[in-house]
Structure formats: structure tokens, C-alpha cells
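@channel anyone free to eyeball this complex?
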Amino acid sequence: MGRRSDHSRPELREMIVAEGHRQMLEVGFARFSAREVAKRIGYSIGTIYNVFGTYEGLILAINGRTLDLWRDYLEARLAGEHGDRLKRAVDAYFEFAVVNRHAWAALYDFRLPDDMEPPESYARQVTAIFEIVVAELVAVLPPERSEEAPALARSLLATVHGHCFFTMNGTFRILGETDPLAAALARVREAVRG
Amino acid sequence: MGRRSDHSRPELREMIVAEGHRQMLEVGFARFSAREVAKRIGYSIGTIYNVFGTYEGLILAINGRTLDLWRDYLEARLAGEHGDRLKRAVDAYFEFAVVNRHAWAALYDFRLPDDMEPPESYARQVTAIFEIVVAELVAVLPPERSEEAPALARSLLATVHGHCFFTMNGTFRILGETDPLAAALARVREAVRG
DNA sequence: TTTAATAATAGACAGTGTATAATTTGACGC
DNA sequence: GCGTCAAATTATACACTGTCTATTATTAAA
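replying in thread with the prediction:
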């Protein structure tokens, strides 16, 4: 039908990502379908292909949206907390994964082909979450250990992620872990203690 | 063509899992195809469906094979090591993931539908790896902390997994981590120190 | 009003997992 | 050896998928 006057390109892109993210939340990565996204916003599959080029491009955009929401969620949950901010951060990490189960899982279910690397925008979105953790660690570490913060943030993100992942994918249920949040927090505290 | 005299049911199952695992190693979960497995062993797709019931059943069998090989690898790498066995264990965890990149990733790329749970055989295969870690921790913890070993093993498996996962999926490259193995080992040592 | 460029689509292609009906095969009793 | 019966295997159809190209519809510019 050609150009629709009320949908300039950036707005169309936004429509697709919004609907795609909604569908990722509902059905998850394995059952996600670009065609279904197109159908729901009243466009044909070809349009999505025109805008994002490939399936990978679409998924990266949707996962990027999830990362943005995650960062926002972490910031919101930390705002105004003056007590145990590290605990609050770990809690928020888990909470987001639980509430956004499928979209969160899609961040890790999707892997780029071996020869591709993620666009710079995606790297920035990951880094934004990382920076939040760095800031929290700087606030809690003694000044003479400030330069440890970035390396520690990377390691503790991985640590908390591992606990969250095993919670979400059922590994901890198999192994009989009943309080993964406490376990993750214990590892965080040890590392900060040094 | 009917029954083939040289392929009783268990042997056919083994053929399919072996070829499926080979293909998982080569192309990974996203490009894995049950039809291609059937073609390569000279059977039709229907046969695979008859033996495994569903796609999920086939993938679970293949991932179970990967878990068995992982356990064997860990045991082999620990055998005869009388020095720093914890370091050796963490090394072996990473090594297996690197060498069996795609098959290892498939363990986590694949998620059962929300309403299904893994068969007991799969749970046992996961537990077998867990038990290796428990034994190593018991050996290194003071006797009065022995009963901590299972909980600590769960948490440290998650910790090492998180570091390994971020290494394999590119997150650590984005964040500039250059020695994830050392970071993982540092977390392990802190936790053992208590 | 014609022209050029852009936006969007329709349709084809080669795949996929799933499912069922039909066929081939092997083993057993006679 | 022959016919029977059940098990093993396949052929085929279905409704999907992501990808891609040629075509059409629409808008803006000349």
C-alpha cells in the first residue's frame, strides 16, 4: 500500500520494537515470530525485513529494549535507598528476571552468529547496567580500593547472573537450592570485604 | 522399509544421539535440525519422531550426552592432581566450554516449555557434576564446615558458570574483562576461606 | 503533471517440527 | 515354505518459519 503518512520510519521502527518486545514477554524467544509481530501491527513481513535487514537485527533491537528497561528498573529500585544498597541491587536484578521472565531469558537465549559482533549501541546498553554496579561498589569500597571497582563489578555481575540464571532455568531446583538470593548476596559480601 | 536387523531399538537411539551430538557440536542449537540428523544416519524424520516422541525429547538426550562428557572431562582432569585441585576444577569447567563451544551452549540455549520438567535421568546427570564439586569442597574445607559443602557447591557452580557464560557469550568482551578465569577463581577462594 | 524515490506488499523458496496413514520388514506357528 | 501378525519405517501432508525479489502503491519534488 506504500507509505503511510502517520508512520515515518523512526516511528515504524518503534512500533515494531514495542510489539516485538511485547511478544517476547508473552511467548519467549523459542516461539517468537517476526511474521506474527508484523501481523499484529498490520504490516507485512517484508516491511520488518526492510527496516531491520535481518532477523538478528530485530532481536538485537528487542533485547536492547529489555536492557534499557532493566537499567531503568535498577535505577528506580536504588533511588532513595540509603540502607543496604548492595542487597537492594541484587534483589532488583532477580526481580526483573522473574517479572520479565521470557524477555530476560531472550537476552541469553539469542546468540549472534560466530562471525558477527553486537552493534555499538547494544554494547552501550550493556555497559549502562555495568556502570550502575561500578558506582555502587565505589560507594561501598574503601577509597584505596576504588580502582578495583570495575573488575569487581564485572565479576560480581557474572556471579549474580550465574545465581539468577540457575534459578530461572531450573538448575537450582534440581540441586535443591532454596535461597539463591541469599547465596548470591553472600558471594557479593565476601568479595566486597576482600 | 521396516525393521533393520542390525539396529535394535537401543542401538538406534544411540545412533541418533551420537549423530545429533556431533551435529550440535558443529552447528549449534540455533541451526540444529532433527531432519538433518535423520538424513545423515540414513533414516527418515519419522523414525526420530517415533523414538524420541518430540523435539524436546531429542534435545534433552543430546544435552544429556554433553553433560556425561562434561562429567568425564572434569573427572579426568582432576585425576592425579594433588596440588591446587580447585583451580584445576575451574580450569576444566572453562576448558570444556571452550572446546565444546556449541554443545555446551546448547545446554543453556534450550529451555523446556514452562509446564514441562526435565526427566529424572537428566536431573541425575546434572547432579553428577554437582557431586564432583561437593567432594572437592569437602576435601578442602575444615571438617567442622563439611555440612556447608552442598550449599557452597551450588553457589560456586553458579558463580563459575556466570563467569564462563559471560566469557562465552561476549558480555565480558564488551565490559573489557581480560582474565575471567582468575576472577572466577578469586570468588571461589573467598567463599572457601569463608 | 510528470518524474523519481520511497514505502510497503505479495508471493515464492527452502527450510522446520509435527502428525498420520500406508508400507515394508522380521519373526513365529503351521 | 507359507501365511499371519505386530513392530519398525517411511512417505506424505500440514502449518509454520526466515529470507528474498519483483511489483505495486504512495508521496514529494521538478
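from a first look: Chain B has ten helices and no strands.
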